[in-house]
Design a protein that fits this description.
By secondary structure, this protein is mostly helical. Helix content is 67%, strand content 0%.
């Protein structure tokens, strides 16, 4: 059996994960074999098994690429935008994304119930995604930019469900212009601002810590979400109110 040089092991793993993502995006999960991925990387199939015991183990790592993709879209969509503009830009980026990658994501979601390892990884990353979205919405609620009569977790999960559904409709052939028009109507209802800033105008310790972790993270790595600190002095924070309630 060939030996793995430790200093190159992590770089090799990332190459294999990236190759698996690319090949499965083109061919789909079921049609992709380890031989296909080995050919993409330029190694023998036996070399892949030094890093991943099977295709399912590789998929568990590929799933971790999805949050980085979503975060990149968010960074590009939200600066200097109203919440509705930001979410609309996110939706447009999603609908315009590579159809192969988006189809693969839906395929991985569909197989999660039959693959506990992949399903657990997917659920963890989805949870992390809407947790971050909830904190962003909470910050916008404190500034009076988003309605404050709904808890931010509910809004975040509802928006994630809508976007997932819109992507399914787009891949099924529904016109993107119609999807966008329906979203603008729904989005204005979900995110309609109250026009009254909340009492809190201070920074959020959770958001500050989350920003530090994101800045230090490499693409494709999972994020361990911080807890809201017990010493937080931000008054009437929607996140803390939801957790206590």
């Amino acid at each position: 059996m060939p030996k793995v040089v430790p200093k190159y092991r992590e770089a090799a793993r990332k190459r294999i994960i990236a190759a698996g993502w690319d090949v499965m995006s083109r061919k789909g999960y079921c049609a992709t074999t380890m031989d296909d991925i080995a050919a993409e990387v330029g190694v023998t199939k036996s070399a892949l098994y030094l890093y991943f015991k099977n295709k399912d183990a590789l998929v568990t790592e590929i799933i971790k690429l999805i949050p980085a993709l979503v975060r990149r879209r968010a960074r590009e969509s939200f600066p200097d935008a109203t919440p509705l503009q930001g979410w609309t830009s996110m939706l447009e980026a999603q609908l315009a994304a590579d159809a192969g990658q988006e189809s693969l994501i839906l395929e991985l979601v569909a197989m999660a119930a039959r693959n506990p390892a992949a399903g657990g990884s997917l659920a963890e990353n989805i949870r992390a995604g809407y947790e971050m979205a909830a904190h962003g919405i909470a910050a916008q609620q404190r500034e009076g930019l988003v309605r404050d009569d709904a808890d931010p977790y509910t809004l975040a999960l509802g928006l994630a469900a809508l976007f997932f559904g819109f992507q399914c409709l787009s891949l099924a052939g529904i016109d993107r212009t119609e999807i966008r028009e329906r979203w603008l109507t729904l989005g204005s209802v979900l995110l309609e601002p109250t026009g009254r800033p909340a009492a809190c105008t201070e920074g959020c310790p959770w958001t500050d810590e989350m920003g530090r972790r994101l800045a230090a993270q490499e693409a494709g790595e999972s994020i361990e979400l911080p807890d809201c600190p017990e010493t937080c002095e931000v008054p009437d924070c929607p996140i803390r109110r939801h957790r206590k309630g």
